[in-house]
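User: Could you check the structure of this?
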Amino acid sequence: RATVLLSRCLLKMVKENIVVPEEILSFCCNGLQGSTSPLRAQEPGEREEVPGTMASPSPARNPTEVQMSQLVLPCHTNHRGELSTGQLLKWIDTAACLSAERHAGCPCVTASMDDIYFEHTISVGQVVNIKAKVNRAFNSSMEVGIQVSYEDLCSGKHCSICKAYATFVAQGPSGSKVKLKPLTPQTEEEKIEYSIAAERRRMRLVHKDTLKDLLSRSPRETELETRVGSAAVPAEKTRVESVELVLPPHANHQGNTFGGQIMAWMENVATIAASRLCHAHPTLRAIEMFHFRGPSQVGDRLVLKAIVNNAFKNRWVLAARGPHPSLPVALHTLTPSFLPPSMEVGVCAEAYGQEMSISRRHINSAFMTFVVLDQEGRPCTLPMVAPEPGDGERRYREASARKKIRLDRKYVVSCKQTEVPLSVPWDQSNKVYLSYNNVSALKTLVAKANWALASEKGKVRMYTLEEDKFLSFRIEMSVHIAAGQAFSLLSDLRRRHEWDRHYASAELVQQVDDDDMIYHVVSQKLSSENKPQDFVILASRRKPCSKGDPYVVAFRSVTLPTHPASAGFTRGETLCSGFCIWPESEETSKVAYYNQATPGYLNYVTTNVAGLSSDFCATFKACEKFLLKNKEDLIVRL
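Assistant: Sure, the predicted structure tokens are below.
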């Protein structure tokens, strides 16, 4: 009734040409929009009610989390009625950027994107759901985790599309870097992502070195296959060059081109190049990890170039997988896995500011993997590629090396912990990813929330965790030693026998780098075959990335051709174990040992599930004596 009276009064005043004061007009407009209560001052700390929303308690949510839902329309799709991957990349980048800016409180730009594997295509009429949130903030950069799924509105089906990690850099008004506030994870999932983000950052930094190392070790004469006959397509015929003008809709509020827009343009020319090889419509399956070298602004011209670097035949590969990863390696089976024919397309983006400008700025380079599917979704064979001499042959060889690295990374890094075999073969191409998996598995175990106190004897506390058919242990105590000193002493397995009576010896068989070593360990305990057990163990050490992080020493089994299983020993395995050391003060630290117990790994773990507290307590007491006895000698040596 009040709304009707207000509207009549306002209409009469307008007809009689009476000037309506702004306050009355604002009040009337608010009333017409549904406000029937008088205006009042907002109390301090009171949250403003949003019209049309219900006042109901909502669960706590990460303040950096951004959710985006997009209905796939015909204008977003290709000729098959499937969502264009370029459009999806734009949405992914936008959601991730909004999440980063929520945390930074200032504009952010895309610095890099990790590997993206697209598991399914999305059809017109379906809904794309994107969730992005900041996993960890470093000095001026932050990692944003993105999860993409689709929803079929008719059937209610939900399906995962991809998971991605992007790095964003916060920028000040003049383009200078901004120091970010730290992020405090709350849930178990957030703590795991926060902890592993530092390890992913380390892996990004060594990505180029990994490729160079693999290329230097590959025999040059065996890399190029014989390309005789008319079936081989000259790579030059697949070359594409296109130019785009950066307009205001393509840029953010600072005038910098959206990273997702650049990725969409790159995907477009890469698709054209792939189509020129196969004379069909290819499907993008993966994008290699890439970095943005510099920004581009409104008014820039972007030159995009693409060419097919290599085409790979279909083949079967054998992966060491057993019915369950807790089985000994002897029970693992080599499961054949089919790799469909695919091609790698290299794309680069360069920018210049004027039509006649000669110098161009390198913005980005990326490598995209395409497949061709028939109407039933089965992979089609691809023509061979004949690379041009010089740079073409170099790109051809690098594509083969990247494929090897990509398979290793997807196999070791992307697998769930329960899907990774106990002993993965170690070589130069996968050393970075095995090290990553080793440390991230331990950090994941540390971040679990359901540890239960099993016993406490003096300063030694033992916790257990039952999850996913694994029984895990955590033994911890405070020791009067600096965390760095404890880290140095406990990370050398050659000295383990001095305090752990279950170890007979440990030989350093390979110094991988400053942070990773491979040991051959012999145990004192006899196996069920009445033979001593031996292990080939990768030890990975990590110093804290920032304040609050622990020192980490992670152990896992690997397979080395130089140290095969021998008749004199029973080969044992460990999936995940190691130390985490937290500084409590300058002279005191908390030392915790973790072990994800599996059958066959150190009998004292599995035979003391009910009453092993005394054994663990004695071992850890011996560890404390070892640390206190050797800390002075360590100071002198340092």
